[in-house]
Amino acid sequence: MLGKAKGGGNPLARFFSNMTKHLSPVDNSELEALELAQTFADETGIDVTEGRPCIARLFYEGVAGGGIGRKPSAFIVALELKVAGLPIVAISKHLEAFNGRCSPPMGQNILASVLRSVQKTYDKRYGCDKLQAFCIGERCPFKSNSGPNLSGQVPIVL
Predict the structure, then answer these.
(1) What's the structural domain count of the chain?
(2) CA distance 38 to 46
(3) What is the pTM of this model?
(4) Which domain covers residue 58, as residue numbers?
(5) 102-115 pLDDT, tens per residue?
(6) What confidence tens digit (pLDDT) does each residue in 82-104 have?
(7) Which of 56, 106, 124, 138 could form a disulfide with 157 if both were Cys (CB 3.0 to 4.6 A apart)?
């Protein structure tokens, strides 16, 4: 049983109180991004440890004209799904869903081109530097190629 330390109060409670003063709180946008990664994994059927928050944000937010562009973004999403082990038929279905979130949506010929490119591409993920606009920061479990399932098993395109 823990007794009272000098100065009064429970020493364990004081310890945790002092610790939390030094820890930065998790930002709501970070939590939302991690929850989005879980939703992305559930919806696409990939393992949750494969669902990178930045890809989930890209998938659900889509692309409106500028930024890194709709076609490159579609390629990144499709490639991520391929690396996670989805068959091309499933990737095509999810690419259609992503396209519906883009403004304006891409034509079917562009989506077909993206799928052909993904089929020819090695199983590599895009590195964090290419996805900065969708990054959740240092709390990301995939930052610096040390994520749950990325311990050197799947190369990252830098």
Answers:
(1) 1
(2) 10
(3) 0.70
(4) 28-157
(5) 999 999 999 999 99
(6) 999 999 999 999 999 999 999 99
(7) 124
